[in-house]
Amino acid sequence: MGEPTEDQPPVRVVLADDEQMVRVGMAAILSAAPGVEVVGQAADGDAAIDLVRQHRPDIALLDVQMPGTDGLTATETITAGFPETGVVILTTFSEDAYIARALSGGANGFVLKTGDPRDLVSGLRAVANGGAYLSPEVAQRVIAELDTSNAGGRMSRGAAARERVAPLSAREREVLALIGEGLSNDQIAGRLGIVSGTAKVHVGSILARLDVRNRVQAAIVAYEAGLVSGF
């Protein structure tokens, strides 16, 4: 998603992290970004949920480990009760094991705490625009974690993913690759020269045929199947 234009409303964010220095630093990065507005900050999951209920933001940016209600439980509560709010998880390389649960809880994106601030802003904008965000670094860790948990399987996850996408049409595989890049329906439509409604139909069909809950899960299939260039 490119830089916002003057007529676009700002991306409204609730930020939750129990480490004050991290929270303040993230808030400073986001507040300095054009078209992003931090509407609330919290130190735990319960407070984050309350802020989401109060402000109905575009994004809830949640740390995984927090006192009381952690980021994973908060993700499940927010996606179930406030589906208009996208959830982006703040993670570290030591928290790979939590990502599978965040995926099943409906998280829309994952960003590294130690990543490039530009990636953080781009990820939030992508999710706010109806896309998904999974940085290549996080994607590799996710897939490695899933491979480890599936070590006894007869096929590698890559082979299994390629088998899953084989029944898709050539156009659907193109769309799946663009989902893997984090593009929204409008951006997919622009890239492929089709109308947004057609892109939406393709995305819905892909999610149903792959039997995945959301775009991030579809993006992981795209990564595993080798549809995303440079991965």
TrEMBL record:
Coiled coil: none annotated. This is DNA-binding NarL/FixJ family response regulator. InterPro entries: CheY-like_superfamily (IPR011006), NreC/VraR/RcsB-like_REC (IPR058245), Sig_transdc_resp-reg_C-effctor (IPR016032), Sig_transdc_resp-reg_receiver (IPR001789), Tscrpt_reg_LuxR_C (IPR000792), WalR-like (IPR039420). It comes from Lipingzhangella halophila. GO terms for biological process: phosphorelay signal transduction system; regulation of DNA-templated transcription. The modification 4-aspartylphosphate is found at residue 63. Keywords: DNA-binding, Phosphoprotein, Transcription, Transcription regulation. Residues 12-128 form the Response regulatory domain. GO terms for molecular function: DNA binding.
